[in-house]
Design goal:
414 residues; alpha+beta; five-stranded antiparallel beta sheet; globular
Length: 414
Amino acid sequence: MKRRDFLASTALFSLFAGDALADTKKKASTTKKKPAAKPKKKPQTATRKVSTSATATPSVHSASNPLIDNPPDGTSASRLPPVRAQELPAEWQTYQIITTLRLNAPGKHARLWLPLPSSRETTYQRTVSHTWQGNSQNTGIQREPDERLEVLHCEWNDGANATLQVVTTVSTADRHFDITRRTVAPDRDDILRANLRASNRIPNDGPARSLGESIVGRIRDPIAQVKAIYDWVCENSIYDPNAPGCGIGDVRELLYSGRYMGRSADINGLFVAICRGIGIPARCVFGIRTGPSRLFRSLGLRSDDASQGQHVRAEFYLPGYGWIPVDPSDVCRAASYEVLSRNDPRLQSLKRVLFGVWEMNWVAFHNGTDLQLPGDGKLLPFFIQPELLVDGKPAGEPKIGERIWSISARRIAG
């Protein structure tokens, strides 16, 4: 990428992020909550009330007392922006994701589970089609509700010369958060509460809550609270290029050890755990990179090979705004791969961009954790790579030069 192209794209995203933050400050400084009429009180009573409010601490939220139940008065969660008509993006790009399996296991029973892009249409992603061909005896798509899982399941009674090719076509548009708009209806209460609960590897109490409270301090506005958590995760986490896949995602271990190191499942999982700890619904979103990045080379594919392109992102929920995208892991990834100091202006610009923006050279699969795949009794903490079992045993990840399966992605339009 030429330097001027990079600067132009970064400036564009920085402009949006800067405008959003400026709007936040402007609304906070100009919007006042109209006080309710109160009976006159004696001067001594009024003086005593002022003194008490000066020393009062903000209400403490937690996973058991979440923001969605009791938003602080006068904050972005209670002072909602006007509802405006939803606007669809003007610029879309279309990608083709091709997964190929070739297995030679004579006399052995083989099963494959392949994560698929979500079929739910949004303002930033639309799944156009799925097609497949191969010689499996049973093939079908199975879905769990609420985007927890969408999977293609195949079986071969005899794994000799087992073949499969799946072609998925997806259109995407860059996603961003606009603080001046309220364009979505509130999400269902059961979905919000599910994203406040702990999972096997992502806690919502103990160190997660304590750390969240220390980061937030006396900040009352929920957007500012989450921004403080996001900044803390970006500044204190280290991206580990040598960790396998997307990382282990054991956030509980990170919190108890105090070593905030890993990959996208670990770093973005840490962000989710801290948000849940202070009562803000949050979740990981699992997906795959499908093209080069306009921001940093390390944040996109460098060829059509997407076999190792799996990547986890995150969202948090605020009343009136819906789910807001973030990606602190990619800030840490850029610092590691591009060898940038924490104070480098390019990294600071990227950090501003990725609070509220997803560059959609990436396709979302689902947001489920602690999953049980169809027809398999094993519980997975998360599911992002193809899962292949031969006679009930994992076949392992693909190896360069002798791959059992491979994934390619290429842009075909837009």
